[in-house]
Specification:
- It is a single chain.
- The chain is an alpha/beta fold.
- Strands 1, 2, 5, 6, 7, 8 and 19 form a 7-stranded mixed sheet that branches. Strands 10-17-11-12-13 form a 5-stranded parallel sheet.
- α1 runs parallel beside α2.
- The mean pLDDT is 90.
C-alpha cells in the first residue's frame, strides 16, 4: 500500500514529537509520526525520576509524565502518531518503506524529518573481550528492565560494576542502589568527577577507579567478574554479577546512511546546516540523532526549531546548497551544525575533556571572529551553546569556520 503525507517524522521521542506538534499547529497539512516502540515518548518513558520540567501547576515531571505530555501535545495539534511501525529503507529520496502491524507500506512525503535519536554503545561495539554471559547491560536496558519488572534486585543481580563517569553513570548507580544491588565500583570516570559518586544519606561512597578501563568480561552463563586495568598499568578483577555500560552515545543513523547522507565527523550524525537541513532536498534531521546524550528539553527545542525550514520547503522555496563548513580544533569533540547556511544560528560545542573556564575562539581563514572566556566548566558529556553573535561575522563565501580552545 502506498500513501502520501505532507510531512513524515521518523521517531516519536522528544525531538520528533515537538517537530510534529509545531508543524501540525502551523498548518503543515498531514503530519504523520512513525515510532517503532509500542508507545511514543522515546527514552524519557523509562526515566523514572524528576528533572523533566514541571506541569502547569509547577509540579516536577518525571520521564514518563514528560513523554505523555509531549505525545498529547502532538495529537492535540493534529498530528498522527503511529506506534509499532518501523521504517526499513528508502524507495526514493522522500519515500520510505515501512513495516506496520497491518503489513508493509510505502509512504511518500513532501518533507521528511529524521528524529531517530541515539543509543549507548554496547559492549560489543566497545570491543570488550570475553564470553557472552547474562548480566551485561547498558543504562537504557537497565531502565527498561526496571520499568518492566520493577525495582527489585533479584532480576538485576546482587553486585554490579558501572562503566563510565558522566551523569548517566550516576543515574545508573542510583537505580541499582534503589533496587537493592550493591555497586562494587565505577570504572572509567574522568578526572575530577569522583566526588559525584560520594556518600548519599546512610549509604557509603562508591569506589571510583578514575581513568581505568574494563579489559575483559569473566564468566559463562552469568557474569562473575570484570578485569580492569588502571592508569598505572596494573590489573585486577572486580567480582560482580552485573555490569552496566553507560554513556558513549552513537546516533541511530541507519536511515541517514542508507540514503547516503554525509555524516558529521565528530558526532557521526547527519551533517546539517543551521536550518537542520541535510544534503538531500526535503530531508531534515533533529535531536539526539545529531548529538547523542543531550537532555530531552534540548532535543525538543531542536524539534520546534525545524518548523520554519520545513514550512519553507512545503512553500516551494529553493533548497540551500553548499554552506560554510564548521570544524573544531584542540580539545573539542564536536560542533553542530556542521554547515552554516543563510541563517545566523547558535552553535553547540562539546569538549573532549573537562575544561575549567576555557577561552573559546572562532576563526575563519585565520581571521578571528570572536573570542570569549566561558564561565564555569565544560564537561565532556554536556554541550555549551554559543549564541548567534558567534557566527554573525562569517563570510558565507569564505573557507571553513574553526572553533577552538585557547588554554
Amino acid at each position: 500500500m502506498t500513501r502520501t503525507v505532507d510531512v513524515l517524522v521518523v521517531g516519536a521521542g522528544p525531538a520528533g514529537l515537538a517537530a510534529a506538534a509545531g508543524l501540525a499547529a502551523a498548518g503543515a497539512g498531514r503530519v504523520e509520526v512513525l515510532e517503532r516502540e509500542p508507545a511514543p515518548g522515546g527514552a524519557p518513558r523509562h526515566c523514572l525520576r524528576p528533572g523533566f520540567g514541571a506541569d502547569a501547576l509547577g509540579r516536577p515531571l518525571d520521564g514518563p509524565a514528560y513523554a505523555r505530555r509531549a505525545a498529547r501535545a502532538a495529537l492535540r495539534a493534529g498530528a498522527t502518531v503511529r506506534t509499532g511501525v518501523s521504517a526499513t529503507g528508502w524507495a526514493g529520496p522522500l519515500t520510505l518503506d515501512v513495516t506496520a502491524p497491518t503489513g508493509p507500506e510505502r509512504i511518500r512525503a513532501r518533507a521528511v524529518v529524521l528524529a531517530t535519536g541515539a543509543r549507548e554503545r554496547p559492549r560489543s561495539a566497545r570491543l570488550v573481550p570475553g564470553s557472552r554471559p547474562a548480566g551485561v547491560l547498558t543504562t537504557g536496558e537497565l531502565q527498561r528492565t526496571i520499568a518492566r519488572l520493577g525495582a527489585r534486585g533479584g532480576h538485576l543481580g546482587r553486585r554490579a560494576v558501572v562503566v563510565g563517569g558522566d551523569p548517566v553513570a550516576r543515574h545508573a548507580v542510583r537505580m541499582l542502589r534503589e533496587a537493592g544491588v550493591t555497586v562494587a565500583a565505577v570504572v572509567g570516570a574522568p578526572p575530577g568527577t569522583a566526588g559525584a559518586f560520594g556518600a548519599s544519606g546512610s549509604r557509603a561512597a562508591v569506589p571510583v577507579l578514575v581513568g581505568a578501563v574494563v579489559t575483559e568480561l569473566i564468566g559463562r552463563g552469568r557474569l562473575t567478574g570484570v578485569a580492569v586495568r588502571g592508569q598505572d598499568g596494573r590489573t585486577a578483577v572486580l567480582h560482580c554479577d552485573t555490569v552496566v555500560f553507560t554513556g558513549d552515545w552513537i546516533p541511530d543513523h541507519e536511515l541517514a546512511r542508507f540514503l547516503g547522507l554525509p555524516l558529521a565527523p565528530g558526532t557521526r550524525g547527519p551533517l546539517t546546516d543551521g536550518g537542520l537541513r541535510t544534503a538531500e532536498p526535503g530531508v531534515f534531521a533533529v535531536g539526539n540523532l545529531l548529538h547523542g546524550g543531550e537532555p530531552a528539553q534540548r532535543a525538543a527545542a531542536e524539534g520546534r526549531a525545524v518548523t520554519g525550514a520545513v514550512l519553507a520547503r512545503l512553500a516551494g522555496r529553493p533548497w540551500p546548497t553548499g554552506g560554510v563548513p564548521v570544524v573544531t580544533a584542540g580539545p573539542l569533540r564536536w560542533v553542530t551544525p556542521g554547515l552554516l547556511g543563510p541563517e545566523a544560528v547558535p552553535l553547540l560545542v562539546q569538549a573532549e575533556r573537562r575544561l575549567v573556564r576555557p577561552v573559546l575562539a572562532v576563526h575563519q581563514g585565520g581571521v578571528p571572529l570572536r573570542r570569549e572566556r566561558v564561565a564555569g566548566t565544560l564537561a565532556p558529556w554536556r554541550s555549551v551553546r554559543l549564541g548567534e553573535r558567534w557566527t554573525g561575522g562569517v563570510d558565507r563565501a569564505g573557507g571553513p569556520v574553526v572553533v577552538s580552545v585557547e588554554e
